[in-house]
Predict the structure.
Amino acid sequence: EHGEEHGEHEEGGEHEEGVEHEEGEEHEEEFHFTPKDTEVACMLLGAVSFFLGLLYLVNWSDDDIRRYTWKIISTTISIFLAVLLFQGINKVVLTFIMPLGDMTVSIIQIGQCLLYIMIMQFSIAFISGAICEGDDHGLDKEVWVYNDPLSKKNGKEVEAEYKPRNPNAQRTVVVNEMKMEIPVIKMKLKLETRVQMMKCYARLLAHMAGFAAINAGGTMQQLKIFQTNAWMSLLPTVIVLAVVLVVFKCLGMLRDAMFKAAKEQGRAGKRAKLYDAEVDEAENDISSLSVSFLIVQSIRFAITGVMPNAEGEEELETPHDYGCTSALYGIGLLFALMACALVVALAKQATHHEEETENEEEEENFVERMTEIALNGAAMTFAWCCLWGTRWAYDKFLFENLSKFKDAEHSAKNKYPSKVMQRVVIALNLSAVACASVFILDKIDDYSRGSGSSSDEQVKAIQILVNSLAILIGFSWEHSFEGGVSAVASMAQPGVQQTLAKLAMGLAIASVMTPMWRKHILTKEMALEKLKDDREKSATKEKKQEGGAQQNLLQSEESSSSAPCLRFACGRCT
């Protein structure tokens, strides 16, 4: 009996130890997280912090910071949608033309770029009403519009049964059925809506055409004849720029003919002017975007001796050293300074438009346009240099610290192109540095305005630097989004299915995001830009009035001091 009790005791002890051991294992497993769990947690916390930061910035107390923030968001979404759509379509095109040879592919890519340009021209002409619309456009009709951002009716025309309290004012209120006062504003609603639509699709199609031009020039740079040295690699840039400028010139002549025809028919040519102004800006974006990327391709080739592929990626065993990174950063800074110098050149050109003949005006417009393209191109070149320089520095850092990672072999194998997480980290770092730089530039601008030492050239230089930083943020996040779409599309079977999956994702995302971007983001950017312009016009008008008053006072003092003394005539003056 004693033996049986002892055996039962031993079995019970072993059972208790087993239970305790299992509980310990469960306790340990409860706090054990895989590297994937850590990555998801970082993305979750980072995403929440990122969006809260954006909410702070879009509601900042400084109007300039809010305008810069909305512009950065709008630029990022526009670039992302353009790249997403273009790459989805281009992958399908390459599926059919790749067997034709490199030279043939380059020519077809240029043709694809010209096709996007023609689509953009026709779309903007149609939206503006320059074509396919009758004489009665109604763009000058003013209506009352709800001006309450918290209302779902904000931006919509006021119903006929509601009468404004002060019909002669520009802003007033209406009383609704609940006896509540709702602010309204008088505006040309049809014109504003049309301008918004034009700017949305002009910017989107211009970026698509710009990336098509990049792809055409980048494909041409892969030919052996252009890889003999860095100077030869610049020839595709010149070829692409020459082709698009010739096309732009021909289309510009067509727009001038449309404007003259409208004048001869007794019309004001309002829609033709809208069409021309929006297309000019879009054409400049196409030229600047393509030239800047291709120039940076040649710069990278000159620094490292390795020509990147058409998308800018490099496949190397070891990353570039920090000396190459510093050289690329330095060249980017030189282009930023060049952009500031071109701002001064544009300001000087603006003072020479008086009393010009028709030929002189045409020549002046061409020089001014080329200066604007060079200005925007220099700013974008700065952005591309910063982006690729940061990619180089990050890759070098990872390569030197691979031994610290458990999955070193896998990391080295998938180092080029960078994984999605790497691209997101780079985009976050660049966004943080760019936002800090925007705050510094805004403080410099505010201090200069407050001290009275600010000039138009300085304001424009700060604006172009902010724009270049916005482009940098847009490019960095575009790389992240593009990598994310490619990663999701890789779940499909390689080949045609993967290509079609990427195209389908691009079309689906664009169909959802484009209306949202146009209605809720682009409108904010345009409204804040208009507010800035109105304040600048008001300040300029006030300065002119003050200057005119001072001039009149000086003239009156001079006339009173130079008037003859009448007392000499009567002999009373001694």
The longest helix spans residues 496-562. Residues 39 and 421 are 8 Å apart (CA to CA). Strands lie at 143-146, 171-175, 181-187.
